[in-house]
Amino acid sequence: xxxxxxxxxxxxxxxxxxxxxxxxxxxxxxxxxxxxxxxxxxxxxxxxxxxxxxxxxxxxxxxxxxxxxxxxxxxxxxxxxxxxxxxxxxxxxxxxxxxxxxxxxxxxxxxxxxxxxxxxxxxxxxxxxxxxxxxxxxxxxxxxxxxxxxxxxxxx
Length: 156
Known about the structure:
Elements: E1 4-6, H1 13-16, E2 28-29, E3 50-52, H2 69-84, H3 92-127, H4 133-147
Antiparallel strand pairs: 1-2, 1-3
């Protein structure tokens, strides 16, 4: 297994725009560098500013905006559509790609927010010995299910 490398000091902005296949963390495996890439081939003589071994890969990257795999793929589609546009023209494909990206980010953020509510409610339930503890847990689960119905928990 090879190292995962990146040219940005933090994040994966340069990797997001290059043709090299990405690992789950968003970086490029040193063995999978594409010759057409302007950033990663050793022949380009550019500095590698971050790396980790494949064994130490943190896995799915978390974008600062909460971007997960679906939103990342949608963002790449937006970038591809924007690159295809001729000067002075706006393509319908770009508007569709932007809508897909917006929906993907909203879905992923909703899932993350609902999961935080569920975890927080469980932790508080374990520490709460008042008469209202069951009501509070049920209310928090209801709110989380309302936010993210795709992963709604079964009522217990």
